[in-house]
## 1
Amino acid sequence: MVDTDAKTAWQLFHLNWLPIVFMGSLLTLGLDVTGLRLEPVAYGTTLAIAALFVVIAYRHRIGKGDLADPKLIFSLGTIGQVIITCAIVGPLSYVAGKMGWPLQDQTLLAIDRALGLDPEPIARFVNDHPWLADILSRSYGLIKWPLLAIPIVLTLTARYVRLQLFMLAMSLALAITIAISALVPAIGTYYALQLPAAHLPDINTAIYAGQLRDILGLRDGSLHEMQLFKLSGIVSFPSFHAASAVLYMWALWPVRRIGGAAAALNLMMIAATPVIGAHYIVDVAGGVALAAASIWAAKAYLEWMNRTARVSVAPATSAVWQPSLAE
């Protein structure tokens, strides 16, 4: 990899292991403290697949040296990091939920209403328009696919640094989201409103039902074992659906013919979050703000890294012998 951007991206790629290791360490400690267990087969298989991608990337980089293909390295390596991150943060959110701090649903609902955005009329409006409920349900599920698509799209378009900044910003946003959710736990708007799913027959409330079941199970002690592929999104504030939508839009915006479409789809995901995910409006606002702050922090780190590199090179350059006119 002789390209300057690729070398910078390689440095960021290594940096991105730090939040992954940090969150993984918290998960290990949290499982020990809370007594929660992870079903080992699915979890081990997932980590093995991710590790295979990472090993292939590192072997290619080490074996080929400067002739290594950055597209192969960053697509496989970053997909591996994404899989590992997702495998960690899902169970980690359950560890945070196990802390059992008082639920803040009524507080969050009061904030929404103070803003003039009562969630009940919004939900009933969507329920009265089944076509809209169907679109929002499909939009809410868009959170998964960009996690694998973004590394491929950005490497194919040689945006290696942007890909690593996206990964760094996403890791920061996830870590902060889980930390806040432990202190501000909530179940969702339908819980605060005491609104049964039967009252909203045309809205897909399966997501809410899953988070209700698991949060209550964590609190009453009936949930002991976590199955990776059956975990629900139990984080209410801030909404990581909203945060991820902003992160996806930022990552793909410069890509011609894709950026605009990605923005439209992710705006739909944000619109779906309060209804399908039963999030409060303040959850969505918090997620958007968190994503913006994480992107800013990742870009600020890159600027600092580049500035440090320029300063370290400058003395060496000035020390090079320059012939005088007299000579």
## 2
Amino acid sequence: MLTVALPKGALLSDSIRLLKAIGLDFSAFLEPSNRLLQITDPTETAKALLVRNYDVPVYVEYGQAQLGIIGYDVLREKTPQVAHLADLGFGKCRMSVAVKQSSPYRSALELPLYGRVASKFVHCAREYFDSLDLPVEIVPLYGSVELGPITGMSEAIVDLVATGTTLRENGLIETDILFESTARLIAHPLSYRINSNGLQEWIEKIRSAALVVTS
């Protein structure tokens, strides 16, 4: 039986809508009363695991799920050993550098040497500032990173931005975009190569449906 790892949060409803378009119905995950973390499609051809974003590639990498749907930001941050198969086109956002509106800095290159940058995307932030050859201290924060500049703990943040509303409401502005992020389809590499459970057929169905659902 095919197993798919689905992410809790913002990508879940669109992921379920996409899978429903190819005949796999996991909409029970969207019911307010649902407490199940694993459900089987009514056709009993596939099951889905509901896991935290960062855990999706882990379940796929270790083979507990043959397929997964996850944001590109997680793939860039965690660099898991999975097959990256398709851009599904939904969940659009961007990884950005942001500073206080009152800050004198208007680009990452203007930040002071060895200044502090707060982020929960430590790898992405480090990679970006290394590419600029700008030495900074990356401060790991896993809550409201906007508080970094607000409290003066950091000069800037690196975080995901969708509409920018949260930044504006907290007096922050974007200065640089590291990369754009969308939902991606990933697979367990060995399962993909040997076509376990007819995996490649499912992948082609998802790719085709994504073109329709996101158009």
## 3
Amino acid sequence: MTVISRNPADPTDVLVDLPAPGAFAVADSVERARAAQPGWADGGAAARSAALGAVAAAVESAGDELAALAVREVGKPLAEARAEVARTVAIWRYYAQAPFEPTGAVHDTAAGPGLLLTRRRPHGVAGLITPWNFPFAIPSWKAAPALAAGNAVVLKPAPEATACALRLAELVRQALPEGVFTVVPGGAVEGGALVSAADVVSFTGSSQVGRTVVRSATARGIPVQAEMGGLNAAVVLPDADIAQAAAHIAASVAGYAGQKCTATSRVIAVGAALDPLREALAEALRAIPVGDPAVPATVCGPLITEAARDEAAAAWQGLSVLAGGTVPDRPGWYAAPTLVEKAGPGHRLLREEVFGPVAALLPARDLDHAVRITNAARYGLVTSVHTADLSAALGALDRIDTGMIRINAPTTGVDFHLPFGGAKASSFGPREQGRAALDFYTATRTYTLAPAAVRS
């Protein structure tokens, strides 16, 4: 296999063209990481904290360069690319404090003298498999807690984000001992080899690949988490601020061409909200700036590949198009932000994640009906509810079957210091981010300390 990464706004611009290293190279990287890991873990909290802080500083210093690279390699609009780099800096700074957190607790014995201790210890080598859409933030929110807890890391990025991953690795390795953080480019062969060799695995990507990763890791008996996308709904009640809701939803549908697992793809209008929301949302989507991601005003840039663009375009065929529904005639892989209606229950837009700037507008009789529509999807990552009624908002919280619920806010947006993850087909295993990540990258050991018998 050859690893090729192209600029989606200008497919003639090739950033990476190199042979995939193969399974044996992945195994070698894991073994080098395994050899380096004890020294990293035993070096103490202060050393790990200083190293992660140094990574944050290095990323911050290279911020403009990294943002430009994300624009070029994955087509991320410049404003979003800059925001991602800033978030990446914040992630490393947040986890730079984690080595000083308590790693266990002391308990009294049930009977007699002695102590019972619990202590969380690193697993060893963390194998990370990451997507292309957040080429700096997702590798960082996996790697930083793994490293803070004392693990070594081997990262296998998506081929489309290889240049970003290699540049991030250069910055990270400046602050870490040799072998503690390694990037192995490649595809399915390299990813499978990493799952077969690592001591703990974290994956973000498609549900099809994620299920394979989970099966392989669980068969080996190692901890695994998998984030596998969403089919996210925005529920709008009649008392909502329709203009605000439309603005939030339009940004969630079209921002970065809908290429986020938290993007909105189903818009559920309750009762009398349907007509005004239809008009406001269609207008908001038509106003979204589409074009060159290097232009600061651009909100919706290209899709990552030609196949992704064609898949998005196929999703609106045969439906009533309220906004968009066109493929701009320009170099690169673009699709206009699109809103459709009259999608039947079996339509793909209501069953599978399209990962493009396309959303379906659906009517609901009341909030109960809207909750049923929301929960009908096999995914359950995030739902937004737009209403001025606090009672309605609170009433929806415990009935919506998604891992995250956002009231009067877009479905997009991640708080890196809180647990991230979904329900049903969206996620498998423990949550990412925040303290939950530190728990995932460590194993609890229970120690019994009993006094020695006293000799007379």
